[in-house]
UniProtKB/TrEMBL annotation:
One Pfam family, short name: Lactamase_B
Keyword Transcription attached: no
PANTHER family: ACYL-COENZYME A THIOESTERASE MBLAC2, METALLO-BETA-LACTAMASE DOMAIN-CONTAINING
Record-given protein name: Glyoxylase-like metal-dependent hydrolase (Beta-lactamase superfamily II)
Keywords from the named record: Hydrolase
Annotated ranges, domain Metallo-beta-lactamase: 25-225
Highest rank taxon of the organism: Bacteria
Organism per entry: Micromonospora pisi
Membrane-spanning segments: none
Amino acid sequence: MREGLRHLAGRVWWYPHDEDAETVQGGVAVIADDTGSILVDAGNAPTTARRIQAAIEAAGLPAVRRLVYTHHHWDHVWGACAWPDVEIIGHRAGARLLADEARRPWSHHYLREQVERDPRLGPSFSARGRAMPDWQGFVVLPPHTEFDDTLTLADGVEIRHVGGRHAEDSTVVAVPDSGVLLLGDSYYPPPYHLREPGDGPDIALVRWLLDEGRYGHYEWFVDSHDHPNRARDVRELLLAAEG
């Protein structure tokens, strides 16, 4: 995995995803602010979160004070317990789901037991096991601050619920002064164990975000498990996909 933060645009920095798809580690954004940086997603495990913390310190960025979940899936939230004294922000639907997740008896034994019951969980639960060398101190953390539709933070960062089939709480995070829209996994198909034949990316959602007046002029459209893409390149890919 490539270590370190990449400066993307304005006050947005990017910690890259792991290109080994079986690792299931998405990219994480840091929005620098003098009063304390905003982290977008927490990493897939406390060990990953600690690498991100070291990268933030090495880059000389302000300490993280707020963490925004793009959605409740494990690879975006399991690192949160390594971020002490940070306000966690997330959609209300995700808060409910994470409260349920927090009650599960997470362990390697529990992961194996669940895969035996439903083999389609294998890829996800195997990745979880690899991400967690031990479970000491691990807890799933629901958000402290919940929202329903949109939430604008004091520093101008805009958080917007878009939903979709990948996760009902999918949220995008916009940084207007930097021209960056962070998509999370919002346009992805459903998770593997819920996927049906014919399920694919939500092209209509990407088209709407590109054409919607609020984001149409943004330069960067960044999803979690790919390299950051410029809006013009996303438009070209959509044209090719739409034939």
